Amino acid sequence: MKKFFTSVPFQSTLTPCIYKPVGNTPLSYEKSHSLPILNVINNCTEKGEEIEVVFLVGDNENIKRNLEYVKKSLDELLDERQLKCKIKYIDYPDSDDISVMLELYGRLIGLCEDNDEIYSCITFGTKPVPLVQMMAMRYAYHAKKNVFIGMIVYGKAHGKMKEIDGIRKYVTDKAEIYDMTSMFYMDELSEKFCRMGIQNPEEKIAAMISGMEESGNEC
User: Fold this and answer.
1) Could you tell me the CATH number of the domain that includes residue 81?
2) Low-confidence ranges of the chain (pLDDT < 70)
């Protein structure tokens, strides 16, 4: 099954925007929203398909409020593409303590199954959370059968403070979404080169990076 993992935004104010893909045009989604994983769902599913969306939900009032907001955008996309969707939630304490992150890791790998296609957005969450997501994907890729890491994305919004009706607000001017999937597979290949005892693996890695740059890194 295709599974889409994303943390819920923790910002106090969300400004919907259109995330423009950088170097990967298939990630386009011409609709304003605040959840980059929607770009992935829009481009990596077939109409009528059954999928699973997993929200990582920190114990924070902003996050809880934002969850209800982003779910509306998700529901709209599900209706547009006639997708059958099962939603799961992974709640975790508002803490970066190592025990909290390890427990989160354990819960994430518990959701991974044989034959899964995994898609992940690492935009939101405190700094350790995207690392935990990457660890869980590596586990699934190695420990489960026929697991495919479909896409890993990162969204970035640009804006500034403006005065609107006498109130200073943060206004988003533009937003971008980056496909980071090749970094996952490059890490995998680098590890294999080292395990195999290949001489001068740096040269092979450099050649592969050059090839990716020339191809534009498109899916």
Assistant:
1) 3.40.50.11700
2) 159-172, 212-219
Asked if residue 150 and residue 200 are part of one domain, the reply reads no
10 Å CB burial of residue 97 (0-12, 13-18, 19+) is: exposed
**pLDDT over 90 percentage in the chain:** 68
pLDDT in tens, 21-39: 998 778 999 999 999 999 9
Q: What is the DSSP string of 150-163?
A: EEEEEEEEEEEEEE
Same domain? For 174 and 185 the reply is: no
Integer Cα distance of 189 and 208 in angstroms:
10
- In this predicted structure, what is the pLDDT of residue 219? 45
Compute how many other C-beta atoms are within 10 angstroms of the C-beta atom of residue 172.
Answer: 17
